[in-house]
Amino acid sequence: xxxxxxxxxxxxxxQIGWWAVGISLLFTILFLxxxxxxxxxxxxxxxxxxxxxxxxxxLAVIWKRExxxxxxxxxxxxxxxxxxxxxxxxxxx
Length: 93
Hints:
69% of the residues lie in helices and 0% in strands. By secondary structure, it is mostly helical. It has a domain at 21-83. Helix 1 (15-35) packs antiparallel against helix 2 (43-63) and helix 2 (43-63) crosses helix 3. The longest helix is centred in the C-terminal third of the chain and has 22 residues, at 69-90. The chain is globular and about 40 Å long.
């Protein structure tokens, strides 16, 4: 599979990296469609994709040593979903 760490300007080299990018893009598109009332999908389903994408991004960056700009860019919405979920669980309103 992968023998060395990727470069910042390259593409992801691992399967986890590509999955993270794909699910992050899916989350971003779903989030934009749901918040603009263009798609009637459960918010739980949308945020679940975001949390999964965030964990996959972190896994690829930390454990697999991916350094692709795609992963760093997609880490932002993933971390947003993780922090949003943690905030709702720890401090419900």
